[in-house]
Amino acid sequence: MKEKFKLTPMEKGWVLYDIGNSAFILLVSTLIPIYFNALAGDAGVNEDLYLSYWGYAGSIATILVAFIGPICGTLSDRNYKRRIFLFAAMVGIVGCAVMGFAPGWLSFLAIYVIAKVGYSSSLVFYDSMLPEVTTEERMDKVSSMGYAFGYIGSVIPFIVCLVVVLMHDSFGLSQGSAMITAFVITALWWLLCTLPLIRKYRQTAFVTGGGNPMAETFRQLGRTIRDARKEKHIFLYLIAFFFFIDGVYTIIDMATAYGTALGLDSTGLLLALLVTQFVAFPFALIFGRLSAKYDAGLLIKICIAAYTCITLFAIFLVTQWQFWVLAVAVGMFQGGIQALSRSYLGKIIPPERSGEYFGLMDIFGKGASFVGMTLVSVISQLTAGVEFRVFGLTLQNENIAVASLIILFVAGFAIFCKADKLNKARETV
Question: Residue 102: helix, strand or coil by DSSP?
C-alpha cells in the first residue's frame, strides 16, 4: 500500500503562511473593492471610473514590487531572508489592520497600495523558501497544498468578516465600524498564521561574499540577470510566465470590481467568490496529485488553455449566473497554475540562489500584472459610457477591456511550449 503523504513540521509552517496571507487577498478580491466603491460613491466620484481607479492602485502596487522584489530577493540570499520576510509581512499585516480607518477613498487607496506591496513582497521570500523547506520530489505536492489549504483556510476569517459586515445592524455596528472589524480580524489571522513559519524557518541555502552587502546585492542581481539570459530554458520560462500569469493575477484582483462595474448584485458576487475558494481547494490538491503521474509542463499548458477559454467567456458576461459559472471555472484552475508555476521554477534553478530567481520571477509576474490591470483600466476608462453590439449582445466597456487578456494567455502558451521543450532536452543530456 502506498504510504500516505504527510507534511513535515517545516512544511506545515510554510503551508500555514499561505493560509494566513490568503485571507488578505480574499478580502482584496471581495469586500475591499465594494467598500472602495462605496467610499468613492460617497465622495461623488463618477461610477464609470471605479474600475479604472481600482486598477490603477493595483498597478502601482505591482510595479513597486516589481522593482523592490528582485533586490530584496537577492539580498535575502545573503542569509537575510527570514528578517526581510518578517518585515515585509508586517508591513502587509499592519496596512491591512489600519485600512478601515482611512478618512476618504484616496487615502484608502494609498494604504491599500502599501499593504499590497508588503503582501506581495513577502511572497517573494516565501516562495523562495520552497526549495529549502522540502525536497525536489515533494515540491509539486507541497506547493499545491500551500495554495489548496490557503484557499480553504482563508474562508474561515472571511466568513466571520462577511457575517459582521452583512449583519452589522444586529451587532450594533455601523457599516464603517463593521469594515474596520473585518480588516482587523483579517490582519490578526494573517499574523497568527505567520508566527509558526518565523519560529521554524532557518535559512540553509545562501551565498557568501565579502564587501558591502547592498553593493554586492546589486552586483549579484546583475549576474543573475546575465545568467538567466544564458540559461535559455529559464529565461524563456520567465517570459512565458510574464504573459500567462498576467491574466491570472488580473482576474483575481479585479473580479469583484469587474462584476460591480457591470452592475451585478454585490452579495451575489461575494457568495460566488466564496464558492471559488471551496472549488479551488480540492482542485489544487488534484493538480498536486496529477503532478506525480503527469508532466508538470503538460499540466501548466492545460491550465493556460483553460484560462484562455475562461477569459473568452468573461467577455460576454452580463448576468449574475454567468459570474457564478466564471467563479467556479476560475476555482478549478487557479490553484493549479499558481502552484505548478512556482514549483516548476523551483526545480530548474540552483537552490542556493532561489531568492534571486524568485525575485526575477516576481519582476516578470508583477510586471505582467501591472500591464494587465493597466490595460484593463485604460481601455475601460477610454470607452466609459460606450456600449458595443457583438453577436446580438450588448456589451459594456468593461467587457471589451477584459478581451485584452486573451492575447497574453496565447503568447504565454506559445513561449512556455518552447521553454518546456528546451528544459526537457536539457534533462535528457
Answer: coil
